[in-house]
Amino acid sequence: MSLLLPDSGLLFWMLLSFGIVAFILVKYGFQVIIKMVESRKTYIDESLLVAKQAYEQMAVVKAQGEVIVEDARREQVKIMNDAAQTRDLLIKDAKEKAGLEAVKLIEEARKQILIEKEDAIRDIRRQVAELSVDIAEKVLRGQLEKKDEQMDMINRLLDEINISKS
Amino acid sequence: MSSFHKIISFIVISLFLLASPVSANAPASATAPEKESFDVKSFILEHVGDSYTWHVTKWGDTEMSVPLPIIVYSHTTGWHVFLSSVFHEKTEYEGLSIAADGKNKGKIVEKDAAGNEIRPFDISITKVAFALLFNSLLLIIIIMAVARSYKKDSFESKKGFVGFMELFIMNINDEVIKPGIGKDYKRYATYLLTVFFFVFINNLMGLIPIFPGGANVTGNIAITFVLAIITFIIVNLSGSKEYWKEILWPEVPLWLKAPIPIMPVIEIVGIFTKPFALMIRLFANMIAGHSIVLGLTCLIFVTVSMGQAMNTSMTVVSVIMTLFINIVELLVAYIQAYIFTMLSAVFIGLARIEPHHVPEKVKE
Fold first, then answer.
1. Inter-chain contact B50–A7, Cβ cutoff 8 Å?
2. pLDDT on residue B327
3. Structural domain includes residue A1
């Protein structure tokens, strides 16, 4: 039966020691531990939230970057195409101009050649005429060395002129 | 205490076998075992109870024990403070003696003028009181060490023992106290954590067989009584209006509460049975655990008279069973601390109920 009756001395020591234990642990022990653990928990939660937001922002930025890169690539392709077209056009123009110029030059050369040719022909004619006059002179000179012959000649020429006048 | 006895039993039994080869070889001789037979009941009761000295072992003829201070106040002779070792030589000291039997058996008594035995005011540091103080100090050291490591660096995640304690504390806080009380649990959490770890460390220390451990602290009714009374006070101080209304004027048919207040009486008895159940549950569980281990150890001593073969086999059985029960007790040490805390939390939670059944009240 004594087991079921609380002993006064033990009650005293229990109240004293448990009171002290409870006071110290409530105030300086568990209070501190729980507070610290919970503040750490909120800190971790907040950090996770911030990290998540940062991740989301990063995803957005990445998407934007991709769009920009895609645009740039498209722009690049366009510019390349334009450049190629311009180049082709320039080359074509140049070719056309060169062709025209060549035709013109050839035409001019041809004209020049024609003029030169005519000049040459005229020159040849003149020379031929001069030669023939010279030859004729020499022939006449040879034939008119005798006086009578000269007289014949003059007569005949005069006749010719008269005949043509009549 | 239990495993401690297990070890002693080994020593004692081997001494028996060595010292008395004649009786061991001749089990028929009935005289020797009779001399060694002992009272199992008083043996167990002595070890689960309280005492003024902390008996460790008996080595040959020398008693090995830790003397503890006796502090008594007699109404006639005033304060007496001395060590309990004085009672080893003489039975009486400064008019005080330890009662051999009667209702004050094992306690310090003095004789009054009429020659009657009376108990002086006794706040001796007995075995249980010493263990209580020792365990309390240990608990403070452990928890304060954990708390201090948080002051140093609060945002670092803890490793090792502190990490384990953090896990343990927060587990009790989140899984036992929080669901038990409900909202505003933080006001009570620190106290209930103290209760949990106080009960738990005392339970555990009771399982360690050597000196600072082994005392049956939580298996002492005075300890569980104080714990239960504090829970009782907290529960009833935090009682809401609804709680008192449900006790004094519950929502039952009128004839159940007037003119004879049957339900209020039952509810009022219920206020007291809750902490009473807390007190008895912890006390009975812990004392039962200690008793079972001691009883199993006693098998060795009881079977001495049944011959060597029987005694040897029962020793093996006893050791295996004691080991098993000790492991079970390790579990019980946690479970009882857990249950005490959980029920305290639930009782506080029940006392803080908010009004419900609103439509029914309108109907009334």
1. yes
2. 94
3. no
Residue-by-residue DSSP string for B204-243: HHHH--STTS---STTSHHHHHHHHHHHHHHHHHT--HHH
How near does any CA of chain B get to the CA of A48, in Å?
14
Do the Cβ atoms of A10 and B125 come within 8 Å? no
Nearest CA to CA, how far is B6 from chain A (Å)? 24
Provide block-wise average pLDDT over 10 residues at a time, chain B (364 residues). 56 45 36 55 83 81 83 85 82 80 79 79 89 94 90 75 91 93 90 95 90 87 94 92 87 82 89 94 93 89 86 92 93 95 93 70 44
Number of domains in chain B: 2
**Interchain contact, B143 vs A43, CB within 8 Å:** no
B233 touches A: beta carbon within 8 Å: no
Alpha-carbon distance A65 to nearest alpha carbon in chain B (angstroms) = 36
A116 domain residue, yes or no:
yes
Reading the block at residue B116, the tokens are 């009657």
Q: Which of B45, B126, B221 sits opposite A9 (nearest CB)?
A: B126
Specify if B239 maps to a domain: yes
**B213 in a structural domain:** yes
3-state secondary structure of B74: strand
Domain count, chain A: 1
Q: How many helices (H) and strands (E) does chain B have?
A: 14, 9
Using a CB-CB distance cutoff of 8 angstroms, which residues of chain B are in contact with residue A47? none
More confident call, B301 vs A97:
A97
In a domain, B150, yes or no: yes
- Number of Cβ atoms within 10 Å of the Cβ of B307: 13
Residue A27 belongs to a domain: yes
- Same-domain check for residues B232 and B307: yes
**Nearest residue on chain A to B157, judged by CA atoms?**
A40
Residues of A with CB under 8 A from a CB of B: 2-15, 17-18, 20-22, 24-26, 28-34, 36-37, 39-40, 43
Task: Give the number of other Cβ atoms within 10 Å of residue B69's Cβ.
Answer: 15
- Distances, alpha carbon A97 to alpha carbons A91, A92, A102, B263, in Å: 10, 9, 8, 120
